[in-house]
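Hey everyone, long-time lurker, first post.

I ran two proteins through the pipeline my lab uses and got sequence/structure pairs for each. Pasting them in order. The first:
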Amino acid sequence: MRALEASTVLSVGEKIELLLLFLHKKWAAEVDVGLSRKDASIAELERLGLPWRIDSRNGASPESWVQVGANQAVLDYLKERRDQLSEMEAGMLYGFPLTHVLGFSGLIHEKVAPPVDTATYMLAGVYSHNFYTQEVAHFRQIWREVEKASPALAKQSEERYGKMRAKFGKT
């Protein structure tokens, strides 16, 4: 945990993503979109003992990133199913609750909502309309586990959320 907290390479968001892997709240994460810090990020993942691979997408806006798995089997699954992976599979592997994934996938009515606290800022995305309250509660429960596992990362995240709110005039 201390190595993750002390990292000067990874952003606070990336640290939270990796912490969620260690807490078994997600099975896949991504770091360093764009690979601007590729070598340093990979060295950090090696120190943490996490399996990784470089992934990319071609097209009008090609991009690359480092994909991280909770274990090698998950990473292998993501690689083997890369072109067939459904939004449902991806959402669950990336740690989102089922109703959240259903809303994102358009299978149930979605709700786009701004973050209301550090937990939803760091963990959430597109909600489902009918299950918004339960999804926020889910992310808050996970956040309590983050706070317990790493008060230092929770504090860094709260500072980041506070800066974002100040930048956009929210108090």
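...and the second, right after it:
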Amino acid sequence: MSLFRRRPKSTEPLNLDAPLDDAVVRRVAALVNAGKVAAADRLCEKTGYPRETAFAAFRYID
């Protein structure tokens, strides 16, 4: 399941207090900006908080 699709199907609330690594979040955003969405998705999935990481990356996506 891609985290970067228009309408994700998850109904679980995000953990907004999740300890995210800002370097990883910025790397995910850079991958999305470069058009490498699948790579960004894989990087998010490697973290302990994949949905939260993807959500946080949106602030850096152009």
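Reply from user beta_strand_b:
Welcome! Quick read of the second one: The chain is about 50% helix and 0% strand. The mean pLDDT is 89.
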